[in-house]
Amino acid sequence: MSVIKNHIVQLSAYKPPLEGRDPDAYTLLDFNERTIPVGDSIRQALHQYIDSGRLQMYPSYGDIVERLADYAGVDSHQLMITNGSDQGIDLVFRAVAAPGAEAIIPGPSFAIYHQCAKVEAMSIVEPQYTKQGGYPVDQVISAITPQTRVIIVSNPNNPCGTLVSSEMITRIADAAPHAAILIDECYFEFSQHTMVPSINDLPNIFVTRTFSKTWGMPSLRFGYLMSAPENITALCSVRGPYDINQMAIVAAKAALSNPDDVTAYVNNIMQTSKPLFEAWLQKTGIEYWSSAANYLWCFPECARDVGNHLQDQGFLVRPKMYGDTLGLRITIGIPEQMKSLMAAWEKIGES
Ligand SMILES: Cc1ncc(COP(=O)(O)O)c(C=O)c1O
């Protein structure tokens, strides 16, 4: 007999396909990462920190909360830092779950929501996104019960890139005042859409963000969560005092001192690379979902073969199912990377 809770023994770990992700062998278009390294100022700040001989000290965070609050346009009491946005998501689930609780997680979506709900033994209701209708708002609202404790709005959603309007989110928040509305703005800098201005009016919304995508530092695990001050105070009692490592703080502070680098990257991806790739997909008749983020979910014929062909040509992309149909979620890289990808794709069937 296991000492572990039975429902946890039944779980399986979330294992993203990390094996073989060798950046020297492949252009990595499979995890929605930034596809070029971060700027020199961040590297220098990390080197300086290591050289300062302070690795033996516990982290001390200084003014990072104030600096992020300034960046995000919130009061510092409305923000807390987290170990990646995964931790922000987990904290919300842990803090609100109760026996018999339900989570509404529109799918397909990012796997961590399911994992967090299952760890808390919540039951999951999963209305489906559609290409035409996007986020299934009416089904979400009809699924609300007195047991609903979390409703996910992944904005934009991974893998489909669909955005939910602020009006719709407000409708959901008003319809479920007893539930946490978890708005995942992981791709905020790409989408430029945010629910942050509503934090003052809606006490049940929680907005998570990250430095893993546009800011280019998923390896350092840094994110932040914004909500009403009383929610932040409560969640800070669930998070550990040192959960965020010092290197992440050093890098994030250096990154925040040079936000133009992120703006330039986002503009390059969203204004040059994405239209280029979309035009090519349209020309070649490959269907895709329109996306507010740095990835496109495409549905070529024989998607598995296309994925394998691209891998042979040195590009990793991510297979993602929509019902019974396999699609490929492709991260948008800089224009040169996308031109090489398209050239490689066009070689399919040649050899
Ligand atoms: C929608 C979404 N939320 C959260 C995350 C996790 O971000 P982090 O690295 O900050 O934990 C991802 C990562 O791919 C994501 O796609």
UniProtKB/TrEMBL annotation:
Keywords: Aminotransferase, Pyridoxal phosphate, Transferase
Pfam families cross-referenced by the UniProt entry: Aminotran_1_2
InterPro entries documented for this protein: Aminotransferase_I/II_large (IPR004839), HistidinolP_aminotransfase (IPR050106), PyrdxlP-dep_Trfase (IPR015424), PyrdxlP-dep_Trfase_major (IPR015421), PyrdxlP-dep_Trfase_small (IPR015422)
GO molecular function, one term: transaminase activity
Recorded superkingdom: Bacteria
Aminotransferase class I/classII large domain mapped to chain residues: 40-342
Keyword Mitochondrion set for record: no
Sequence similarity: Belongs to the class-II pyridoxal-phosphate-dependent aminotransferase family. Histidinol-phosphate aminotransferase subfamily.
PANTHER family (UniProt xref): HISTIDINOL-PHOSPHATE AMINOTRANSFERASE, HISTIDINOL-PHOSPHATE AMINOTRANSFERASE 2
Protein name: Histidinol-phosphate aminotransferase
Organism: Candidatus Endobugula sertula
